[in-house]
Specification:
heterodimer, A: 388 residues, alpha+beta, Butyryl-Coa Dehydrogenase, subunit A, domain 1, Butyryl-CoA Dehydrogenase, subunit A, domain 2, Butyryl-CoA Dehydrogenase, subunit A, domain 3, 3 domains, B: 258 residues, alpha/beta, Rossmann fold, nine-stranded mixed beta sheet, two-stranded antiparallel ribbon
């Protein structure tokens, strides 16, 4: 049974409740995810049967209050993401999108009717959501988006397309961002099977294979006036959602890194080379293991502090950027190093390492690429935006 | 059906234990605790019986203040309320003392059924459940692997695990006590809502002194320690025939492996 890593003994800082939540997710991942994930990864299928199970346990929108959500702390939410991503980035991505990019905007910007209609169903896993911001031509620069939401009668007509949308083809509801007639970007709830809305799944991904990724297309897609998330007010509303999701990624990356380190450590202790000694007795191997554990420990401490700040309402988006940027970067490096340590065995799916490594390549560039977060932080410390 | 489930908090398994300076117990600092494994199966069985027959599941534990954690987890899994008899550790290293304390609260609660684990993962006496049943003059069955109730929940049919894969079927009238074997069911996960509501559920503390049991202890732990491992070797001389004969003799008589 996986017990996690806690070199700096930060466990006593977590409340009993937080540890109980972690235990639930860890057990769930051990029993329900790990036995099937390699098959789903190999066959490029999303384990959709786990959605309701995760929902029943309260994993979806866990840090939101009311409407059937668990109403837990942000640290709890982070621990859920950490443990899910120890299973696979696909499941964490699903939960991040559902909770942070669909339920959060409805909860924050939606009308009472929109909340009552969607949040209980999304929390119960009876409905799946996706989030459409990125476009084929506008990734790091969403402000340039081409999708239009033209006012027509008492509704809107959407035209444009969205790219790289997690859950796209399995979603019942899409949170879609478009430019309105007043040039302001606002969010809309578009239900599946709305005429003029089509989702097309990307095939042949080398990464996040157990996750559904789609392109969303809107051709004269008419939605009623109450599809508008009326509280949205420009791109900053969409970015608020991303801050939530990036927070969950910062935690998730720790889980993936732990899984890789765990494999590498076990392998190094058991694999024997040169005079029948475990490779863990060699200095170069020890250096790698130490680097991994050090970076995991730093990432854990970062998450813990970020979570506490967020629970006090004091976490800034720049701090979240630093967390996402650092943790995903080190997780990917840990995965690569683990794959290196495992030698040829590192490339087959008898071990989770290569899968995590490939997944993390995506995680590094989605929700703000590593480099864009660098520029966000660059602006934060110099006051000079480098991307304008 | 009102069910009392007796649970014990024990140090997490697979922990690397260290002894305290007096060799009287393990160092408890920085240990992680959990519900004793068999007891968790007992609780799951209780929750399933409640789902079938309605009623209430009450957790009962004897232990230090720290045992509140195990009880909160039990409440998160779905128990309705909990009672913690807060007792000094040296008093409760005797299963009879624990059974007596449990009896005092069982008499207050008057349940239809008491479930507990076969044994604890720390002391492994495997006596507390049986002693409690005897003190209550209740019928009991141990090492239970299957529980069946009639429609109205008045009698039980249970399967006990015997040696060599044999099972024994026993019928009992309620009230009764069962000690549950691990693996009888699949223990549920504590849902996040369960964890949140557990904070608000009643956890009543009972002071050990108020039970008037002090001084009745019959067992005292003198010392604990790790088994000593010794490596011994011996060269048997003489001809191969002679050496083989001596070796076979040793295997039979000394090592008892033939």
């Amino acid at each position: 049974m996986f017990k996690g890593y806690d070199f700096m003994n930060i466990d006593p800082l977590f409340s009993d409740e937080e540890k109980m939540v972690r235990r639930t997710v860890r057990d769930f991942v051990e029993d329900r995810v790990l036995p099937i994930i390699e098959k789903h990864n190999r066959e490029a299928t999303f384990p959709i049967h786990l959605v309701k199970e995760m929902a029943q346990l309260g994993f979806l929108g866990a840090n939101l209050q009311g409407y059937g959500c668990a109403g837990m702390s942000n640290v709890c939410y982070g621990l859920i993401m950490q443990e899910l991503e120890r299973g696979d980035s696909s499941l964490r991505s699903f939960a991040s999108v559902q909770g942070s990019l669909v339920m959060y905007p409805i909860h924050t910007f939606g009308s009472k009717e929109q909340k009552q209609r969607w949040l209980p169903r999304l929390a119960a896993g009876e409905a799946i959501g996706c989030f459409g911001l990125t476009e084929p031509d506008f990734g790091s620069n969403p402000a340039g988006m081409l999708t239009r939401a033209h006012k027509s009668g008492d509704g809107y007509v959407l035209n444009g397309s969205k790219a790289w949308i997690t859950n796209g083809n399995v979603a019942d509801i899409a949170v879609v961002w478009g430019r309105c007639d007043d040039d302001k970007i606002r969010g809309f709830l578009v239900e599946k099977e709305t005429p003029g809305f089509e989702a097309r799944e990307y095939k042949n991904k080398w990464s996040l294979r157990a996750s559904v990724t789609s392109e969303l297309m809107f051709h004269d897609c008419r939605v009623s006036g109450d599809a508008l998330l009326s509280g949205t007010d420009g791109l900053r509303s969409a970015l608020m959602c991303l801050t939530q999701a990036r927070y969950s990624i910062a935690w998730g990356a720790v889980g993936a890194a732990m899984a890789c380190y765990h494999s590498a450590l076990e392998w190094a202790l058991q694999r024997k080379q040169f005079s029948n000694k475990p490779i863990a007795s060699h200095q170069l191997v020890q250096e790698k293991l130490v680097w991994m554990l050090t970076e995991i420990t730093k990432a854990q401490l970062l998450c813990y502090h970020l979570g506490r700040l967020k629970d006090q309402g004091r976490a800034t988006s720049a701090q979240v950027s630093l967390g996402k940027r650092n943790n995903v970067y080190v997780a990917l490096e840990v995965a690569r190093m683990a794959r290196d340590l495992l030698g040829a065995n590192g490339i087959v799916d008898d071990y989770p390492v290569f899968r995590h490594m490939c997944n993390l390549e995506t995680v590094k560039t989605y929700e703000g690429t590593h480099d864009i977060h660098t520029l966000v932080l660059g602006q934060e410390i110099t006051g000079i935006p480098a991307f304008e | 059906m009102k069910i009392v489930t007796c649970i014990k908090q024990v140090p997490e398994k697979d922990t690397r234990f260290e002894l305290n300076t007096e060799d009287s117990w393990i160092k408890e600092q920085d240990l992680t605790y959990e519900i004793n494994e068999c007891d968790e199966y007992a609780l799951e069985e209780a929750l399933r019986l409640k789902e079938k027959h309605g009623g209430e599941v009450v957790l009962l534990s004897v232990g230090s203040d720290l045992a509140e954690r195990a009880l909160r987890r039990g409440l998160a899994l779905g128990a309705d309320r909990a009672i913690l008899i807060v007792a000094p550790r040296e008093e409760i290293s005797d299963p009879l003392m624990v059974a007596r304390a449990l009896r005092a609260q069982a008499q207050v609660e008057q349940p239809d059924l008491i479930l507990t684990g076969v044994r604890s993962d720390d002391h492994a006496f495997a006596q507390t459940g049986t002693m409690l049943a005897e003190l209550l003059h209740w019928p009991h069955a141990t090492i239970v692997m299957k529980v069946e109730t009639d429609e109205v929940g008045k009698t039980l049919k249970v399967q006990r695990e015997l040696e060599a894969g044999l099972l024994e079927e026993v019928a009992l009238a309620l009230p009764a006590l069962l000690t549950i074997q691990q693996g009888i069911n699949q223990v549920r996960y504590a849902s996040l809502k369960g964890i949140m509501t557990a904070k608000k559920k009643e956890l009543r503390r009972v002071d050990w002194i108020s039970l008037g049991l002090s001084g009745g202890k019959k067992i005292q732990i003198e010392r604990i320690g790790f088994p000593k491992s010794e490596k011994k070797f011996e060269i048997i001389g003489g001809s191969p025939e002679h050496a083989a004969a001596v070796l076979v003799e040793k295997m039979k008589k000394e090592m008892k492996i033939l």
